[in-house]
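Protocol step 4 of 5: obtain the predicted structure for the target chain.
Materials: sequence only (see below). No template structures provided, no constraints applied. The aim of this step is simply to have a reference model before the mutagenesis design in step 5. Sequence pasted as it appears in the construct record:
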Amino acid sequence: MKNGVSNIKLTSYDDLFGTNDAEQQGKSVIEIDVSELHEFPDHPFRFEMDAEMQELMESVKKYGVLEPILVRKRTQGGYEIISGHKRTSACKAIGQNVIPAVVTDCGDDEATILMVDSNIYRRNILPSQKAKAYKMKYEALKHQGVQNGLHTLEQMGEAFGESGKTVQRYIWLSRLSDDLLELLDRKKMGIVQGIALSFLNQEEQDWILDIIVDEKVQISTKAAELCKECAQNGTLTQEKAKEFLLDSQKKKSDALSINRNRLKSYFPSSYSNEDIEKVIFQLLEEWQQRTGGGEVGQGRSI
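Step 4 output (structure tokens):
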């Protein structure tokens, strides 16, 4: 069965997905050649050949694809994957030429919503993936207008168990360049800083990236907010952005930090950071009094 779809009928759509929707009645699972399958345009969810993928490949080898993928026909020929990119890749990796699938007939907006909803609950989803997925669903829902009295952000928040404001913040993050989103995914930049930088245009974002890379600095919340403020009033320059980032880094490097693990043997586990700090300063004051308040080197050594 190397070309297209076989006529073999497998489990019905309703039995498989447990739906009573009349629109889905009569849809069945068929087998499709993997060469006929194409990725969803701008699919935001990527995956690695990691342990989880290896497990999936082993499962497909042993038991086959237990849950059919969801596809729709393309006008250019073949099928577009709505849900099932990992299962399709697993089949290709182990040399399995066909995969069970349900072919659905839906428009672009509905396909986008289905694609996002079927992938958004993945384990270990990255901030960039969530941001792009939320943006795609947001645009698709906007085309459908207000439903059930809820505006688009509220609809999404209700569906994903998040507030409309949280959804809005992720949509703002989707405006970041791919390079800045990568910093976000690698935890080299926080979400709060990312949201502030999302208000910068592409050229301004490129300045920030160049400064971070060239100067080997991390951007603080204050520096990000200053850049946002200047960008919004049209006064941000590359020199200003560099000043904000380096000044923030200098203040950070001037701060003294002590590893809590090194203090464990000196304090009860019930002590909070504030408790520990209070004791340390009390001891320092006593030491200063004993040494006559002189600088280290002029009084006794610690």
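Step 4 remarks: Residues 262-286 form one domain. The two ends are 82 Å apart (CA to CA).
Proceed to step 5.
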